[in-house]
Specification:
Blueprint lengths: L5 H12 L1 E2 L2 E9 L3 E8 L6 H7 L5 E7 L14 H21 L8 E7 L7 E7 L4 E2 H7 L5 H20 L12 E4 L2 E4 L3 H9 L25 H15 L4 H5 L7 H10 L8 H7 L13 H11 L31 H7 L18 E5 L5 E9 L6 E7 L5 E7 L3 E3 L5
Antiparallel strand pairs: 1-2, 2-3, 3-4, 4-6, 5-6, 7-8, 8-9, 10-11, 10-14, 11-12, 12-13
Length: 419
C-alpha cells in the first residue's frame, strides 16, 4: 500500500475483509465527513446464515460505522503532527458512541458496542455498532410522496422533539437536524447521525449543513450560543416546514446558500410560512425566531405538540379532544394464538372473530402500506376486534419490543392475511 498512510491502508483492509469484531459487513449505506456506514449481521458460531436458513430464526442486524481517516495532505497540519492529531480524532469518533449510549430514548438508535479493529497495516480502525433502522429518510419520503398533512406532521414533530429533549437532558446538542437525518419507521420517527455532537461538545467546533444554519451561526464569531439547544430547535422548525411542503428557499424568501449576511437579513424579517395551516404556522414560527433566546425549549415544544395531537393518538395529552388531559389510550395488544382459543373453548365461550374479516391467517408474512405511503413487512398476529375489516400486524422493532399496528385489508399489498 505504497503512498497510503497506515490509517487509510487499514480502513481498506477492513473493508476488503468485511469483518469487525463479530459483525459481518454486508452492504455499504453511506459515507460522511466522520465515517462510512455499513449494514451488518451479528455473526457467531451458532448464528450463521446457514444455520438460520436451515433451522429458522432471526438474524441480528445492525449498522457499523467505521472511522474515515483523512490523508495527511487533506488537513492543514504539519506532517510531523498528523499522527498525534489523528489520535485525537479517534477519541472524538469513539466519543460519538459514548454520547449515544448516554441518551435513553426510543426515538434515537441505541449503541451495541464500540471498539477498534486490529489490522496488518498497523493501525487499529475505530468502529461502533448501532441499531439498524428499517425505513426511509424524511427527505426521501417528502421527495417521493409529498408533504405531510397536519396530523402526520404533528406525529413526526412529537418524535423528533422527544429525541431532542433526551439529548438536551444530558447536556448535548445534535447540531445537524435536517430531513436527511430523520428516519421513518412504522409508528415512529428516529433521529440519527450524531457526528457533530462530538465535534461541538468535545472540541467546540462548528459544523452542519448549508441551508440549515441558524442566524447566530452565520455571523463571523464562533461563540457558546452557536452550540446551544436553541440551535436544535431552530433546525427543527426548518425541518418541519420542509416536511409540511415549504421549499427551503421559500422559508426565508432568499437563497439559503447565498452570502451569510444576506441570509441573516432575510431571517431577521421572519419566516414566510403563509402557505401552512394556522395550527402548524403557530407551532413552527416561534422555533424560527431570529433571537435564540426567543425560541421555545424542546421540552416546551413537546408539551405543545402533545396538546395538539388528535384524539386517539397515544402520544397526545388528550387536550385536543377539548376535555382536558386524559390518559393516552393503550396500544392494541397482540392476541396469544397458542392459548386464547383453547381457553375460550374450555370456558364454553365462542372464539371471537372480527366482523367482515373472518379468521386471520396467523403467522402469515404480509406487506402493508401505512398512512405515509411506506411499505412494511410484518406478521399477522390476529384480527382487530375494535375495527371491523382490520388485521393486527406485528413489525420487528429495532429495540426488540413488539410493535403491533392495525391495518385495513385494503392496505395489504402482498401476502395472505386470511385463511
Amino acid at each position: 500500500m505504497a503512498g497510503l498512510h497506515p490509517a487509510q491502508a487499514a480502513l481498506q483492509e477492513v473493508v476488503r475483509g468485511r469483518q469487525v469484531g463479530n459483525w459481518e459487513l454486508t452492504e455499504p449505506l453511506g459515507r460522511g465527513g466522520q465515517g462510512t456506514t455499513w449494514r451488518a449481521i451479528w455473526k457467531r458460531e451458532d448464528h450463521s446464515l446457514t444455520r438460520v436458513g436451515v433451522a429458522g430464526g432471526r438474524l441480528n442486524r445492525g449498522v457499523i460505522k467505521l472511522m474515515l481517516p483523512p490523508a495527511p495532505d487533506e488537513v492543514p497540519i504539519p506532517p510531523a503532527r498528523f499522527d498525534a492529531w489523528l489520535a485525537g480524532e479517534v477519541k472524538a469518533f469513539l466519543f460519538e458512541a459514548m454520547v449515544l449510549s448516554k441518551i435513553d430514548s426510543p426515538y434515537i438508535p441505541g449503541v451495541f458496542e464500540a471498539a477498534t479493529q486490529q489490522t496488518q497495516a498497523g493501525w487499529d480502525v475505530p468502529w461502533f455498532a448501532t441499531e439498524l433502522i428499517s425505513g426511509r429518510s424524511l427527505a426521501e419520503q417528502v421527495g417521493t410522496v409529498g408533504p405531510m398533512d397536519q396530523n402526520q406532521l404533528l406525529d413526526l414533530a412529537h418524535d423528533i422533539v422527544a429525541a431532542l429533549v433526551a439529548i438536551h437532558h444530558v447536556g448535548l446538542v445534535h447540531l445537524d437536524l435536517k430531513p436527511d437525518n430523520v428516519m421513518l419507521e412504522p409508528g415512529r420517527a428516529r433521529l440519527i447521525d450524531f457526528g457533530l455532537v462530538t465535534k461541538a461538545n468535545q472540541k467546540g467546533r462548528l459544523g452542519g449543513t448549508p441551508g440549515f444554519f441558524t442566524p447566530e451561526q452565520l455571523d463571523e464569531v464562533i461563540e457558546e450560543r452557536d452550540f446551544a439547544p436553541a440551535a436544535d430547535v431552530f433546525k427543527l422548525g426548518v425541518t418541519l416546514a420542509i416536511a409540511a411542503g415549504v421549499r427551503l428557499p421559500d422559508i426565508w424568501g432568499t437563497d439559503p446558500f447565498g452570502e451569510d449576511e444576506t441570509v441573516r437579513r432575510a431571517m431577521r424579517k421572519g419566516a414566510q410560512l403563509v402557505s401552512l395551516k394556522p395550527v402548524l404556522r403557530d407551532l413552527i414560527t416561534p422555533m424560527l425566531a431570529f433571537d435564540p433566546f426567543a425560541r421555545p425549549t424542546a421540552a416546551a415544544v413537546l408539551e405543545q405538540v402533545r396538546d395538539l395531537l388528535p384524539a386517539g393518538n397515544s402520544k397526545g395529552s388528550g387536550k385536543a379532544q377539548g376535555g382536558g388531559a386524559t390518559a393516552p389510550p393503550a396500544l392494541p395488544k397482540p392476541p396469544q394464538p397458542a392459548d386464547r382459543p383453547a381457553r375460550a373453548a374450555a370456558a364454553g365461550q365462542p372464539v371471537p372473530a372480527a366482523a367482515g374479516v373472518g379468521n386471520a391467517n396467523l403467522g402469515a408474512r404480509v406487506v402493508v402500506v401505512d398512512r405515509l405511503g411506506l411499505d412494511w413487512t410484518g406478521v399477522v398476529v390476529g384480527v382487530d376486534t375494535k375495527r371491523p375489516g382490520n388485521i393486527l400486524v406485528k413489525h420487528e422493532s429495532t429495540r426488540g419490543a413488539e410493535n403491533v399496528r392495525s391495518y385495513p385489508l385494503s392496505q395489504v399489498v402482498r401476502g395472505t392475511p386470511l385463511k
